[in-house]
Design brief:
- Helices cover 37% and strands 19% of the residues.
- By secondary structure, the chain is of the alpha+beta class.
- The chain has two domains: 241 residues, Bira Bifunctional Protein, Domain 2 (BirA Bifunctional Protein, domain 2), CATH 3.30.930; 101 residues, Rossmann fold.
- Strands 1-5-6-11-10-9-7-8 form an eight-stranded mixed sheet. A five-stranded mixed sheet has the order 13-12-14-15-16, sandwiched between helices.
- Helix 5 packs parallel to helix 9.
- The longest helix has 17 residues.
- 34% of the residues are buried.
- The protein binds adenosine-5'-triphosphate (ATP) and magnesium ion.
- Magnesium ion binds next to loops.
- Homodimer.
Length: 431
């Protein structure tokens, strides 16, 4: 019978890959906690209307990328394509936004029916951050210094750059949209197919078209910055001063718009030149209108989401995965012969108690000396602990270095933990 395979664009993350995932996730978690952000966990499935009403009916996501289905009650449900909408829904539903500020984050899989390619999948993972109740631009700046700190912690500072823009209020965008459509309508024959379609549905998205001909047309098009309201302009220039003062470098990209309808004022992207077309590793902005749009009170809000697959791809491409993120065990405890099994089990336990940050694997399943040592080697362990009848008789073990030519030594069982502590050096739990 043919074997059943995973769904195209939905990846298994295998044991060899999880250490680098854990490295990234742990680093992000640590940085977010340094700033006092709280984690929130939302369901993966929401009412379809939540996404239609927030992301916007004529966006790429809602038009063609959502996994939508009727459940057994006939309700239309959707696998979340992003986290902001669900986060706002949850925060509102549980009164988290009432007369208070919030700094929240979440992580998990997102689903979009896109054409799978490098850095673009149908199930992918984001870490999202959402801040509520703060007008900014100080909180906008905080999100950007936080992400800059994260790139430093991941060793990616040299490989990411920040682009920012202001897209103003919805009134300003409405006026600009008219001017842009009026201008581009004169060049319909020169527009690429996507842009022609967007001319009717979502003309601002034409600004970030990758098509060279369209980009050429845009050089003489009306400019969004000339339509911005004073408040948005002030907000943006204050944000720039804050970033300058904090030493966070950026470029203003006047054509940066986001693919989701709910953004206004500040928008930003962290991009890399090392991943080809899928170069945006983190994207976000301000969305002061969304909470009200979803039925809540007007609430200031700003946030971002980063794509974990792209960050990991970037670390791997640049060979920046730290050696410690390999998942190898430190010590492999063997048991030669049946009589050695119970004491080996006890020895493993006592080592785990004495060295809580060390990874200690106990051999299971018996076998010859040779086959046990082969497994010890494959585990990646730095040391094998050899426990057989001779060692049992003298309450000792053989301690064999597996990654150097140093000779095996006999160590009294009572002293083993102390000797290993010296040899292994400082270890951090959850490396
Ligand atoms: P793109 O322009 O690359 O399609 P987007 O504007 O659709 O990105 P957002 O909705 O802002 O992306 O999502 C934030 C981040 O999530 C992106 O910058 C990217 O790192 C990641 N991301 C988005 N879609 C995918 C996907 N299909 N596969 C992998 N990562 C993704
Ligand atoms: Mg997209």
């Amino acid at each position: 019978m043919a074997k059943i395979q995973a769904i195209r664009g939905m990846n298994d993350i295998l044991p060899e890959q999880t250490p680098v995932w854990q490295f990234v996730e742990d680093t992000v978690r640590r940085v977010l906690s340094q700033y006092g952000y709280q984690e929130i966990r939302m369901p993966v499935v929401e009412q379809t209307d939540l996404f239609k009403r927030s992301i916007g009916e004529v966006t790429d996501i809602v038009e063609k990328e959502m996994y939508t289905f009727d459940d057994r009650n006939g309700d239309s449900l959707t696998l979340r394509p992003e986290g902001t909408a669900g986060c706002v829904r949850a925060a509102e539903e549980h009164g988290l936004l009432f007369n208070q500020t919030r700094r929240l984050w979440y992580t998990g899989p997102m689903f979009r029916h896109e054409r799978p390619q490098k850095g673009r999948y149908r199930q992918f993972h984001q870490i999202g951050v959402e801040c509520f109740g703060m007008n900014g631009p100080d909180i906008d700046a905080e999100l950007l210094v936080l992400t800059a700190r994260l790139w430093r912690a991941l060793g990616l500072s040299e490989h990411t750059r920040l682009e920012i823009n202001s897209i103003g209020t919805s009134a300003a965008r409405r006026e600009y949209r008219q001017a842009l459509v009026a201008y581009l309508s004169g060049y319909r024959d020169q527009l690429d197919e996507d842009s022609l379609r967007r001319l009717e549905s979502n003309p601002l998205r034409i600004l970030d078209s990758k098509h060279p001909g369209t980009q050429q047309l845009l050089t003489d098009a009306p400019r969004l910055e000339n339509y911005l309201d004073q408040e948005s302009l002030d907000h943006f220039s204050e944000l720039r001063s804050l970033l300058d003062a904090a030493g966070v470098g950026y470029t203003v990209n006047p054509r940066l718009v986001r693919g989701l309808d709910y953004y206004g004022k500040t928008v930003f992207e962290w991009v890399t030149d090392s991943l080809g077309a899928q170069g945006t590793v983190c994207a976000g902005g301000r969305y002061d209108g969304l909470v009200e749009q979803l039925g809540g009170k007007p609430t200031y809000a700003v946030g971002f989401a980063m794509g974990l697959e792209r960050l990991i791809l970037l670390l791997e491409t640049l060979d920046l995965v730290p050696a410690s993120a390999n998942g190898d065990v430190d010590v492999y405890v063997t048991a030669m012969g049946d009589s050695a099994v119970p004491p080996a089990l006890a020895l493993g336990e006592s080592l785990r108690t004495a060295l809580p940050a060390a990874r200690i694997m106990s051999h299971c399943g018996g076998g010859s000396f040779k086959s046990q040592m082969k497994k010890a080697d494959r585990s990646g362990a730095r040391y094998a602990v050899i426990l057989g009848e001779n060692e049992l008789a003298t309450a000792s073990v053989g301690l064999k270095p597996l990654r150097s030519d140093e000779p095996q030594q006999d160590v009294a069982q009572a002293e083993l933990a102390g000797v290993l502590k010296e040899l292994l050096g400082p270890l951090t739990a959850g490396r």
